[in-house]
Amino acid sequence: MEKNHTLLDDTDFAILSCLQKDGRMSFTEIADQLNVSVGTARTRLNRLLEEGVISIVGRVDPEKVGFRAYAHIAIYIRPATLKEPVAQEISSKPEVSFLASTSGDYDLEVDVMCQSNNHLVEFVNEISTIEGVYQTKTTLYFKVYKYAQPDLNLLK
Amino acid sequence: MEKNHTLLDDTDFAILSCLQKDGRMSFTEIADQLNVSVGTARTRLNRLLEEGVISIVGRVDPEKVGFRAYAHIAIYIRPATLKEPVAQEISSKPEVSFLASTSGDYDLEVDVMCQSNNHLVEFVNEISTIEGVYQTKTTLYFKVYKYAQPDLNLLK
DNA sequence: TTGTAACTCTGCATATTTTGCAGAAAAAGG
DNA sequence: CCTTTTTCTGCAAAATATGCAGAGTTACAA
Question: Do A22 and B56 touch (CB under 8 A)?
Answer without folding.
Answer: yes
